[in-house]
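Hi everyone, sorry if this is the wrong subforum. Our group has a chain we'd like a structural model of before ordering constructs, and none of us has done structure prediction before. Sequence below.
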Amino acid sequence: MTRREKKVHCRDNTGDMAEKHSDFSEESDDNCIFCLIASDRDPEAEVLKKNEELVCFKDLFPAAPHHYLVVPRKHILSCESLHGGHIGLVERMAELGKEVLRDQGVTDMEDVRLGFHKPPYTSVHHLHLHVLAPSSQIFSFILYKFIPGSVRFITESHLRKELKNESQRQKWFFNRFSFVTQNMSSMDTQRSSEEEECPFCQIANNETDSEILQSDDELLCFRDVKPGAVHHFLVIPRTHIDNCKCLQEKHVALVERMEKMGRSALEKVCDLKDIRLGFHIPPFCSVPHLHLHAMAPASQMPFKSQLHYGPQSHWFITVEKVLSQLKTKGKVR
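Answer:
Right subforum, don't worry. Here is the predicted structure as C-alpha coordinates:
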Protein backbone atom coordinates (compact mmCIF):
# COMPACT_ATOMS: atom_id res chain seq x y z
CA MET A 1 0.00 0.00 0.00
CA THR A 2 1.44 3.32 -1.03
CA ARG A 3 1.58 6.38 1.18
CA ARG A 4 -1.11 8.00 -0.93
CA GLU A 5 -3.37 4.96 -0.57
CA LYS A 6 -2.81 5.04 3.15
CA LYS A 7 -3.83 8.66 3.32
CA VAL A 8 -7.02 7.94 1.46
CA HIS A 9 -7.73 4.97 3.69
CA CYS A 10 -7.02 6.91 6.87
CA ARG A 11 -9.10 9.93 5.97
CA ASP A 12 -12.32 10.32 7.98
CA ASN A 13 -15.24 10.77 5.60
CA THR A 14 -17.18 13.80 6.74
CA GLY A 15 -20.59 12.54 5.74
CA ASP A 16 -20.24 8.77 5.67
CA MET A 17 -19.80 6.51 8.64
CA ALA A 18 -16.88 4.10 8.59
CA GLU A 19 -17.54 0.43 8.05
CA LYS A 20 -18.13 -1.51 11.25
CA HIS A 21 -16.03 -4.54 12.21
CA SER A 22 -17.50 -7.09 14.56
CA ASP A 23 -14.49 -9.24 15.46
CA PHE A 24 -12.14 -8.57 18.33
CA SER A 25 -8.54 -9.63 17.85
CA GLU A 26 -5.24 -8.90 19.51
CA GLU A 27 -3.26 -10.46 16.68
CA SER A 28 -1.39 -8.27 14.21
CA ASP A 29 -3.36 -7.65 11.03
CA ASP A 30 -1.27 -7.26 7.86
CA ASN A 31 -4.11 -5.29 6.27
CA CYS A 32 -4.18 -2.76 9.11
CA ILE A 33 -2.17 0.42 8.55
CA PHE A 34 -1.55 0.95 12.23
CA CYS A 35 -0.41 -2.65 12.71
CA LEU A 36 2.20 -2.03 10.02
CA ILE A 37 3.39 1.11 11.79
CA ALA A 38 3.34 -0.57 15.22
CA SER A 39 5.44 -3.46 13.93
CA ASP A 40 8.01 -1.13 12.32
CA ARG A 41 7.02 -2.17 8.80
CA ASP A 42 6.15 1.29 7.53
CA PRO A 43 9.38 3.20 6.88
CA GLU A 44 7.46 6.34 5.93
CA ALA A 45 5.64 6.71 9.25
CA GLU A 46 7.06 9.45 11.46
CA VAL A 47 7.33 7.59 14.76
CA LEU A 48 8.12 9.86 17.69
CA LYS A 49 8.26 7.43 20.59
CA LYS A 50 7.73 3.73 21.18
CA ASN A 51 8.14 0.97 23.71
CA GLU A 52 7.35 -2.74 23.85
CA GLU A 53 3.62 -2.07 24.14
CA LEU A 54 2.87 1.24 22.41
CA VAL A 55 3.87 3.43 19.47
CA CYS A 56 3.27 7.16 19.01
CA PHE A 57 3.43 8.87 15.62
CA LYS A 58 2.23 11.99 13.86
CA ASP A 59 -1.32 12.09 12.49
CA LEU A 60 -1.28 12.36 8.70
CA PHE A 61 -4.06 14.95 8.84
CA PRO A 62 -3.36 17.07 11.95
CA ALA A 63 -6.32 18.83 13.53
CA ALA A 64 -4.13 20.99 15.79
CA PRO A 65 -0.55 22.35 15.85
CA HIS A 66 0.40 19.16 17.70
CA HIS A 67 -1.62 16.09 16.73
CA TYR A 68 -0.23 12.65 17.49
CA LEU A 69 -1.66 9.15 17.67
CA VAL A 70 -0.80 6.52 20.26
CA VAL A 71 -1.61 2.92 19.31
CA PRO A 72 -1.04 -0.44 21.00
CA ARG A 73 1.13 -2.89 19.11
CA LYS A 74 -1.60 -5.48 19.59
CA HIS A 75 -4.55 -5.17 17.25
CA ILE A 76 -7.55 -3.91 19.23
CA LEU A 77 -10.39 -2.59 17.11
CA SER A 78 -11.68 0.40 19.08
CA CYS A 79 -12.51 1.83 22.49
CA GLU A 80 -15.68 -0.27 22.47
CA SER A 81 -13.50 -3.42 22.46
CA LEU A 82 -12.05 -2.47 25.84
CA HIS A 83 -13.07 -3.77 29.26
CA GLY A 84 -12.07 -3.20 32.87
CA GLY A 85 -8.80 -5.04 32.39
CA HIS A 86 -7.67 -2.40 29.90
CA ILE A 87 -7.76 0.59 32.27
CA GLY A 88 -4.00 0.42 32.70
CA LEU A 89 -3.50 0.29 28.93
CA VAL A 90 -5.52 3.48 28.46
CA GLU A 91 -3.52 5.20 31.21
CA ARG A 92 -0.22 4.19 29.62
CA MET A 93 -1.37 5.39 26.20
CA ALA A 94 -2.21 8.79 27.71
CA GLU A 95 1.12 9.01 29.53
CA LEU A 96 3.08 8.21 26.37
CA GLY A 97 1.14 10.88 24.53
CA LYS A 98 1.97 13.44 27.21
CA GLU A 99 5.65 12.42 27.11
CA VAL A 100 5.73 13.12 23.38
CA LEU A 101 4.11 16.52 23.91
CA ARG A 102 6.76 17.41 26.47
CA ASP A 103 9.47 16.26 24.06
CA GLN A 104 7.95 18.58 21.46
CA GLY A 105 8.10 21.54 23.83
CA VAL A 106 4.47 21.59 25.02
CA THR A 107 4.40 22.73 28.64
CA ASP A 108 0.73 23.58 29.25
CA MET A 109 -0.85 20.21 29.94
CA GLU A 110 -4.12 21.92 30.86
CA ASP A 111 -4.59 22.83 27.19
CA VAL A 112 -4.33 19.29 25.88
CA ARG A 113 -7.08 17.01 24.60
CA LEU A 114 -6.73 13.25 24.80
CA GLY A 115 -9.43 10.96 23.52
CA PHE A 116 -10.80 8.33 21.18
CA HIS A 117 -13.27 8.30 18.35
CA LYS A 118 -16.21 5.97 18.88
CA PRO A 119 -17.43 3.55 16.21
CA PRO A 120 -18.73 4.03 13.60
CA TYR A 121 -16.72 7.26 13.44
CA THR A 122 -13.29 5.62 13.57
CA SER A 123 -11.19 6.22 10.47
CA VAL A 124 -8.91 3.21 11.07
CA HIS A 125 -10.13 0.07 12.82
CA HIS A 126 -7.25 -0.11 15.28
CA LEU A 127 -7.47 1.50 18.71
CA HIS A 128 -5.77 4.91 18.65
CA LEU A 129 -5.60 7.75 21.13
CA HIS A 130 -5.72 11.25 19.69
CA VAL A 131 -3.26 13.61 21.39
CA LEU A 132 -4.03 17.24 20.48
CA ALA A 133 -2.40 20.45 21.69
CA PRO A 134 -3.15 23.17 22.24
CA SER A 135 -6.77 22.05 22.44
CA SER A 136 -7.82 25.70 22.24
CA GLN A 137 -6.26 25.81 18.78
CA ILE A 138 -7.93 22.78 17.23
CA PHE A 139 -8.77 23.87 13.71
CA SER A 140 -12.34 25.14 13.56
CA PHE A 141 -13.29 23.30 10.36
CA ILE A 142 -12.63 19.93 12.03
CA LEU A 143 -13.40 20.75 15.67
CA TYR A 144 -16.72 18.88 15.50
CA LYS A 145 -14.81 15.58 15.38
CA PHE A 146 -13.16 16.15 18.74
CA ILE A 147 -15.93 17.53 20.97
CA PRO A 148 -15.80 15.77 24.38
CA GLY A 149 -19.00 13.92 25.20
CA SER A 150 -20.27 13.96 21.63
CA VAL A 151 -21.50 10.91 19.77
CA ARG A 152 -18.13 10.80 17.98
CA PHE A 153 -15.55 11.42 20.68
CA ILE A 154 -14.85 10.31 24.25
CA THR A 155 -12.01 11.72 26.33
CA GLU A 156 -9.39 9.44 27.82
CA SER A 157 -10.42 10.34 31.39
CA HIS A 158 -14.11 9.69 30.68
CA LEU A 159 -13.29 6.35 29.06
CA ARG A 160 -11.28 5.27 32.09
CA LYS A 161 -14.21 6.19 34.33
CA GLU A 162 -16.59 4.14 32.19
CA LEU A 163 -14.23 1.16 32.18
CA LYS A 164 -13.84 1.37 35.94
CA ASN A 165 -17.62 1.33 36.38
CA GLU A 166 -17.88 -1.64 34.02
CA SER A 167 -15.15 -3.44 35.94
CA GLN A 168 -17.10 -3.01 39.16
CA ARG A 169 -20.26 -4.33 37.50
CA GLN A 170 -18.27 -7.24 36.10
CA LYS A 171 -17.02 -8.17 39.58
CA TRP A 172 -20.57 -7.98 40.92
CA PHE A 173 -21.85 -10.28 38.19
CA PHE A 174 -18.94 -12.69 38.69
CA ASN A 175 -19.46 -12.84 42.45
CA ARG A 176 -23.18 -13.33 41.96
CA PHE A 177 -22.57 -16.14 39.47
CA SER A 178 -20.00 -17.81 41.75
CA PHE A 179 -22.39 -17.66 44.70
CA VAL A 180 -25.12 -19.39 42.69
CA THR A 181 -22.89 -22.12 41.28
CA GLN A 182 -21.11 -22.86 44.57
CA ASN A 183 -24.41 -23.45 46.33
CA MET A 184 -25.85 -25.92 43.82
CA SER A 185 -26.02 -29.45 45.18
CA SER A 186 -26.90 -31.00 41.80
CA MET A 187 -28.08 -30.06 38.32
CA ASP A 188 -31.64 -31.18 39.16
CA THR A 189 -31.69 -29.07 42.29
CA GLN A 190 -30.32 -26.14 40.32
CA ARG A 191 -32.99 -26.36 37.66
CA SER A 192 -35.82 -26.78 40.14
CA SER A 193 -34.69 -23.84 42.25
CA GLU A 194 -34.07 -21.58 39.25
CA GLU A 195 -37.43 -22.32 37.69
CA GLU A 196 -39.20 -21.47 40.93
CA GLU A 197 -37.36 -18.18 41.42
CA CYS A 198 -36.48 -17.23 37.84
CA PRO A 199 -38.25 -13.98 36.91
CA PHE A 200 -38.35 -14.95 33.23
CA CYS A 201 -39.98 -18.30 34.07
CA GLN A 202 -42.56 -16.33 36.03
CA ILE A 203 -43.20 -14.13 32.99
CA ALA A 204 -43.46 -17.21 30.76
CA ASN A 205 -45.97 -18.74 33.20
CA ASN A 206 -48.12 -15.57 33.22
CA GLU A 207 -47.32 -14.94 36.88
CA THR A 208 -46.51 -11.26 36.32
CA ASP A 209 -48.19 -8.28 34.69
CA SER A 210 -45.42 -7.89 32.08
CA GLU A 211 -46.69 -6.83 28.66
CA ILE A 212 -46.11 -9.64 26.18
CA LEU A 213 -45.45 -8.29 22.68
CA GLN A 214 -45.36 -11.62 20.86
CA SER A 215 -45.70 -15.24 21.92
CA ASP A 216 -46.26 -18.76 20.72
CA ASP A 217 -46.10 -22.23 22.25
CA GLU A 218 -42.30 -22.07 22.49
CA LEU A 219 -41.23 -18.41 22.80
CA LEU A 220 -42.32 -15.02 24.03
CA CYS A 221 -41.08 -11.47 23.57
CA PHE A 222 -41.32 -8.49 25.94
CA ARG A 223 -39.59 -5.17 26.63
CA ASP A 224 -36.39 -5.00 28.66
CA VAL A 225 -37.08 -3.14 31.93
CA LYS A 226 -33.67 -1.42 31.66
CA PRO A 227 -33.42 -0.62 27.96
CA GLY A 228 -30.00 -0.09 26.42
CA ALA A 229 -31.44 1.34 23.21
CA VAL A 230 -34.51 3.21 22.02
CA HIS A 231 -36.11 -0.15 21.26
CA HIS A 232 -34.91 -3.04 23.44
CA PHE A 233 -36.82 -6.32 23.50
CA LEU A 234 -36.06 -9.72 25.01
CA VAL A 235 -36.97 -13.05 23.44
CA ILE A 236 -36.97 -16.06 25.77
CA PRO A 237 -37.90 -19.74 25.49
CA ARG A 238 -40.69 -20.94 27.77
CA THR A 239 -38.48 -23.89 28.72
CA HIS A 240 -35.82 -22.91 31.24
CA ILE A 241 -32.35 -22.89 29.65
CA ASP A 242 -29.69 -21.18 31.74
CA ASN A 243 -27.71 -19.28 29.08
CA CYS A 244 -26.13 -19.49 25.64
CA LYS A 245 -23.29 -21.68 26.96
CA CYS A 246 -25.87 -24.41 27.61
CA LEU A 247 -26.89 -24.50 23.96
CA GLN A 248 -25.95 -27.43 21.73
CA GLU A 249 -26.22 -28.20 18.04
CA LYS A 250 -29.76 -29.48 18.57
CA HIS A 251 -30.74 -25.94 19.65
CA VAL A 252 -29.92 -24.31 16.29
CA ALA A 253 -33.58 -24.29 15.24
CA LEU A 254 -34.57 -22.76 18.60
CA VAL A 255 -32.06 -19.93 18.25
CA GLU A 256 -33.16 -19.31 14.67
CA ARG A 257 -36.78 -19.01 15.83
CA MET A 258 -35.70 -16.64 18.63
CA GLU A 259 -33.90 -14.51 16.06
CA LYS A 260 -36.97 -14.52 13.81
CA MET A 261 -39.22 -13.35 16.66
CA GLY A 262 -36.73 -10.64 17.66
CA ARG A 263 -36.62 -9.34 14.10
CA SER A 264 -40.39 -9.47 13.88
CA ALA A 265 -40.76 -7.36 17.03
CA LEU A 266 -38.23 -4.80 15.81
CA GLU A 267 -39.71 -4.69 12.32
CA LYS A 268 -42.86 -3.14 13.76
CA VAL A 269 -40.97 -0.13 15.14
CA CYS A 270 -37.78 0.41 13.13
CA ASP A 271 -35.63 -0.29 10.09
CA LEU A 272 -34.08 -3.76 10.27
CA LYS A 273 -30.88 -2.44 8.66
CA ASP A 274 -29.76 -0.92 11.99
CA ILE A 275 -30.40 -3.56 14.66
CA ARG A 276 -28.38 -5.71 17.06
CA LEU A 277 -29.30 -9.22 18.15
CA GLY A 278 -27.29 -11.25 20.64
CA PHE A 279 -26.76 -12.88 24.00
CA HIS A 280 -24.71 -12.10 27.09
CA ILE A 281 -22.04 -14.66 27.93
CA PRO A 282 -21.95 -16.05 31.50
CA PRO A 283 -21.08 -15.00 34.12
CA PHE A 284 -22.34 -11.67 32.79
CA CYS A 285 -25.99 -12.68 32.47
CA SER A 286 -28.21 -10.54 34.67
CA VAL A 287 -30.94 -13.20 34.66
CA PRO A 288 -29.94 -16.89 34.42
CA HIS A 289 -32.55 -17.73 31.79
CA LEU A 290 -31.60 -17.70 28.12
CA HIS A 291 -32.69 -14.42 26.54
CA LEU A 292 -31.97 -12.82 23.19
CA HIS A 293 -31.45 -9.07 23.19
CA ALA A 294 -33.13 -7.40 20.19
CA MET A 295 -32.08 -3.74 20.01
CA ALA A 296 -32.39 -0.77 17.67
CA PRO A 297 -31.20 1.55 16.35
CA ALA A 298 -27.76 0.05 16.95
CA SER A 299 -25.91 3.08 15.63
CA GLN A 300 -27.53 5.32 18.24
CA MET A 301 -26.87 3.19 21.31
CA PRO A 302 -25.07 5.20 24.03
CA PHE A 303 -21.50 4.38 24.97
CA LYS A 304 -22.46 2.42 28.11
CA SER A 305 -24.77 0.27 26.03
CA GLN A 306 -22.02 -0.33 23.49
CA LEU A 307 -19.84 -1.67 26.30
CA HIS A 308 -22.65 -3.99 27.42
CA TYR A 309 -24.01 -4.96 24.03
CA GLY A 310 -21.28 -4.09 21.52
CA PRO A 311 -20.32 -6.82 19.03
CA GLN A 312 -16.69 -6.38 20.15
CA SER A 313 -17.58 -6.70 23.85
CA HIS A 314 -15.99 -9.61 25.70
CA TRP A 315 -19.32 -10.39 27.40
CA PHE A 316 -21.71 -10.16 24.43
CA ILE A 317 -22.01 -12.45 21.42
CA THR A 318 -24.13 -11.79 18.35
CA VAL A 319 -26.80 -14.26 17.33
CA GLU A 320 -24.93 -14.83 14.04
CA LYS A 321 -21.85 -15.99 15.95
CA VAL A 322 -23.92 -18.21 18.24
CA LEU A 323 -25.51 -19.94 15.25
CA SER A 324 -22.17 -20.27 13.47
CA GLN A 325 -20.52 -21.85 16.52
CA LEU A 326 -23.42 -24.21 17.17
CA LYS A 327 -23.42 -25.39 13.55
CA THR A 328 -19.63 -25.87 13.33
CA LYS A 329 -18.63 -26.80 16.89
CA GLY A 330 -21.87 -27.91 18.52
CA LYS A 331 -21.49 -25.41 21.37
CA VAL A 332 -20.83 -21.76 22.17
CA ARG A 333 -17.23 -21.01 23.08
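For your construct planning: Confidence is low (pLDDT under 50) at residues 1-26, 183-194. The chain has two domains: 3-160, 191-329.
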